[in-house]
Model the fold of this input.
Amino acid sequence: MTGASRGIGLAAVRALLAEGATVVGVARGATDESRELEAADRFRFVPADLSDPAAIAGLREAVGDAVDVLVNNVGSAPPRPGGFASITDDDWTRTYELNALAAVRVTRGLLDVIPSGGAIVNIVSENAILADPLVMDYSAAKAALLSFTKSLSKELGPRGIRVNSISPGPVATALWLGSGGVADTVSAAGGGTPEDVRRGAEQAMVTGRFTTPEEVGALVAMLASPLLGNLTGSDVVIDGGMRQTM
Done:
C-alpha cells in the first residue's frame, strides 16, 4: 500500500487489516495514525519517497517474496489557480512522477512477486475523465494512470492477476480540506473562504457531501477480494453522483 500514512491510504490500510490481511504501508513519512497501526502484528511501515526511482527500487527487498495485493495510492493534486501558463515544466514533471510514474515503477518492481490470483488496485481520480484546469497537470497524469490500468489488465489477465482502479471525486481529506489544501488555495486566489469552496464542491455532487476516506478504503478491500475473481480492467467511480454521463 503506497501513500499509506494518511487520508485514503490510511483508511484502506485499516480496511485491509480488518479483513485479516498483513499490510506493508509505504509513505514518505509516518504519522501519528500510522504509528498507532504499527503496534499491530500485521502492519509494517516502510518510509520511502516514491517520486524517487531509487527509493522505489528498494521496495522489492522490503516487501518480501509475495505480494497478493498491490495498492498504488500515492499522489498529490496541487491546485493551479494561475492557469495553464503558470504550470512549469518542473511542475508537470513532478506531478507525473508522483501520480503516474510512481505506480508504473512500483508495479514493475513488484510484478514478479504478485502471484496468480493476486490483484493490483490503482487509485485514480474523477479528474481522469472530468479534466479540470484548476488541476490540469494532475488531471492529465491521472488519465495516464487510468489508461495504464486498462492496458495492464489486458496483459496480466491471462496470468490470473486482476488490475482495477478506483476514481474518487472530492474526498474529505487534508488534500482537499486541510491547511494548504485545495479549498485553502482556491479561496486565497479567488476570494471567498475555504468554506465557500467546500460548499461549491458539495453542490456539484447529488449527495451533497464529500466521499469519506473510509468509503474509498472499503472499495479497496472489495477490489482486493478473491470474491470478485472475474472483475478486471474496471474503474469504480465514487463521486457522489458528480459525473453526469452514463
